[in-house]
Specification:
The complex is a heterodimer of chains A (about 160) and B (about 260).
Chain A (H helix, E strand, L loop, with lengths): L1 E6 L2 E6 L6 H8 L18 E4 L2 E4 L12 E3 L12 H8 L9 H14 L5 H7 L11 H21 L1
Parallel strand pairs in A: 1-5
Antiparallel strand pairs in A: 1-2, 3-4, 3-5
Chain B lengths: L4 E4 L3 H10 L3 E4 L5 H6 L7 E4 L9 E4 L2 E5 L4 H6 L1 H6 L1 H7 L5 H4 L4 H7 L6 H7 L3 E4 L3 E3 H4 E3 L2 E2 L7 E7 L3 E8 L6 E10 L2 E7 L6 E2 L1 H9 L24 H19 L1
Parallel strand pairs in B: 1-3, 2-3
Antiparallel strand pairs in B: 4-5, 5-10, 6-7, 6-10, 8-9, 11-12, 12-13, 13-14
The chains are: A alpha+beta (about 160), B alpha+beta (about 260).
Amino acid sequence: MNLELTVNGKTQSMQCEDRTLLVDLLREQIGLTGTHVGCDTSQCGCCTVHLDGQAVKSCTVLAAQADGSSITTIEGLAHGDALHPVQQAFSACHGLQCGYCTPGMIMASTDLLRRHPDPTDEQIREGLAGNLCRCTGYVNIVAAVKQAASLMRAAGSQSA
Amino acid sequence: MYPFTYERASSLQHSVQGLRSDPEAKLLAGGMTLLPTMKMRLAAPSRLIDIARLADLRGITREGNTIVIGAAQRHCEVAADPTVRAAIPALAELAGHIGDPQVRARGTLGGSIANNDPAADYPAALLGLDATVITDRRSIAAADFFLGLFTTALEPDEIIRAVRFALPRRAAYAKFAQAASGYAMAGVMVAQLDAGIRVAVTGAGPGVFRWREAEAALAGKWSSDAIAGCALDAGALNTDLHGSAAYRAQLVRVMAAQALDRLN
């Protein structure tokens, strides 16, 4: 089938099978391999991207369902060389060890910060309930999200 | 996944015709159960008719003493909706704890109840709140809709349009979620309706059911103490790797008490 997607701000027409998963289209056809496949059973959240602004598991969305939509992947978060505040905070707080879950963690975190700009620990843990990390024990991930929240609030108050 | 044909539905009527013309066709809404099932090759529909964007299935409206929620409303939308939160906070709360945030961003009310997973949350809401399922051709009371394990009263070509919830006097939902999946090992909706008291249980048995002994006890005394000694037949409950039937019976008691304590 033919479809049209806006991926990281760039609108493109492409073809795929009706059964192609969004994650496979992103990785194999568009070459955006920052979106990982961890479990392929919608448990782990490594494949999280934003579909029309909302975090979804791209291993459980058909590319066809996303036809006409706008998608942001981990590659679309930074502005040039300037990392997104959530990326900065994951780096500064060492919110990762092996890094495999990190793209999904960051995409889920940006979505939760949209809903909760000043989140409690509980809101962070609930907001990341769909993302599994098998290295960190989550402590530094929660710290990173808190730091990102304060970075983003400070940036928001400066620009206001 | 085995190959299939995808089409985006243009209207409710065309979707009904699509189901009639191809018995192997399936409706696709959020896809949070259907797509994983297809990936496991446990289902192999010939055609998916994507009804997620049909305007007929969208919207949340207050109509008199009821709230009508479109079948394609996603869990995150129900959880965040100001009308639902004000009128039936227990329903918003329930929707806000289905699965995880990414699942709630895609999964729909209609998809959940059409699937009737015995551990899904929404069936407890519909049965506990005495809701009515509105399809393309008729209205079905929740008590007549859920027929047990993955089975409903829907005809093969019938499509859920919306669910009508009468406003309860008060209601609360408590669930003990399986840690990995988020599905209920026991979820209990306790409600005081104009029609009487309802205690609806999901996750513990082969399908959602009313715990009538608890309803009778609560009619005498509206308190968590009242249900402590109520009979609950563990023989009818599930045993699996997550817990025995006796354990689930205990969870049902504890969840019912927690729901009641939230209201008192």
